[in-house]
Amino acid sequence: MRDQYAGDVSDLLKFALLRALAGCDRNLGIAWYYVAGEDNARDGRHLEWRDQPHWENLDPGLFKWLREVPRSVSALESTEFWSTTVKFHRTPAPATEQRKTWAREKRLKLDGADIVFLDPDNGIGTASEKHATITELVALRSPGRSIGFITFPKRKKHSVQVVELHECLFRAASFLRIVTIRTSVSVPSKSNPQRVVPRARWFTFVDVDDALQSRLRSFATTLERLHHVRAYVYESESSAVNGYGVIYERGMDGGWGAYAPDLPGLGVVGNTYEEAEQLIREGISIHIAGLIEEGFPVPEPSSFAELVSVPNV
Q1: What CA–CA distance (Å, rounded) separates 270 from 256?
Q2: d(CA 182, CA 162)
Q3: In what side-by-side order are the strands of the sheet with 267-270?
Q4: CB-side neighbour CA atoms (13 Å) of 21
Q5: Residues 155 and 262 grouped into a single domain
Q6: DSSP one-letter string for 177-211
Q7: Cα 1 to the center of its chain, rounded Å
Q8: Is residue 283 part of a domain?
Q9: Does 151 share its domain with 253?
Q10: Same domain, 259 and 226
């Protein structure tokens, strides 16, 4: 997210959606994946919505405020508009070797948020200033929390891409439910401003509960009523799949260790069995996310354990 993008039609859609999802009962957190300076690209130029009154039907308060706010990310954090409970993380994404420290800071900054939205320029991908990673997504999971992110789809058939996206996320972690709103807004063409062309933006949320699912569907219906806007909802549930076998071992000091034989190199140690169980669950999700990001195959679950009775000799 750059200052030059602030207030464009993507922000209008994004903020209207987040306000609709948060309602009066959810705390919101936004990780900007802020990039300082301008890149001399034409991105962020679509401000035509300011002169198109039909957009006011989406969110009247947002329509008025966003038309007047200065074009900077810091201005978008104004408490005059957002609830005082909204949390923001604006520290620029660093180089890879400092990424883990930066990610920990982000988690702490957004602690307490029921909905966390990641806003990198290019969606989910390999660690960079313009991408969030699946590992970072998984690390932000917390009971009762839903995590969302923006995606700008490629030219490949969109109906295929969205299925692949959900499958990739399910492979990385046992998300309960994933919902993507695929939006398409007609904007003036670069070469001929008198002609409009569709521009796609997707908003994907994982670990979606029933209430958020209903709000996402309702928002898509509202979008469909607007001129030159299309919205499609794609939903998928976690299917019953074989989990990875885990071996638990009690140490001489009373602590517990755990490892998954199908995932070499992954092992955890906890002070209690419950802690080891939680750590190995988180470790499996993060380990698989890392394999996917690096392009390595994900091993299929094949190991299991059982008790064997041995006759007395």
Answers
A1: 5
A2: 9
A3: 247-250, 256-259, 267-270
A4: 32
A5: no
A6: EEEEEEEEEEEE-SS-TTSEEEEEEEEEEES--HH
A7: 14
A8: yes
A9: no
A10: no
Q: At a CB cut-off of 8 Å and minimum separation 6, what does 166 contact?
A: 178, 180, 234, 236
SS3 160: helix
Backbone angles phi, psi at 280, to 5 degrees: -70, -35
The domain of 151 spans: 3-237
For the CA atoms of 40, 94, 127, 37, the dihedral, rounded to the nearest 10 degrees, stands at -10
Residue with tokens 């969030």: 132
Amino acid occupying residue 200? A
Rounded to the nearest 10 degrees, what angle do helices 9-22 and 60-68 cross at? Answer: 140
Dihedral angle, C-alpha 103, 109, 111, 112, nearest 10 ° = -150
Helices (H), the chain: 9-22, 60-68, 73-76, 99-109, 134-139, 158-172, 210-224, 273-294
Lookup result for tokens 């806007």: 229
Paired tokens of 201: 């933006």
Residues in the chain, total? 313
Residues 229 and 281 in one domain: no
Q: What is the pLDDT along the chain (313 residues), one digit of tens a residue?
A: 788 888 888 899 999 999 999 988 999 999 999 888 776 666 656 788 888 888 899 999 999 998 888 888 888 888 677 877 899 999 988 877 788 899 999 999 999 999 999 998 888 888 777 888 888 888 899 889 999 999 888 888 888 888 888 888 887 777 878 999 999 888 777 766 677 777 888 999 999 999 999 999 999 999 988 888 899 999 988 654 456 778 788 777 878 888 888 888 888 898 888 888 888 877 887 787 777 767 778 787 777 666 565 666 5
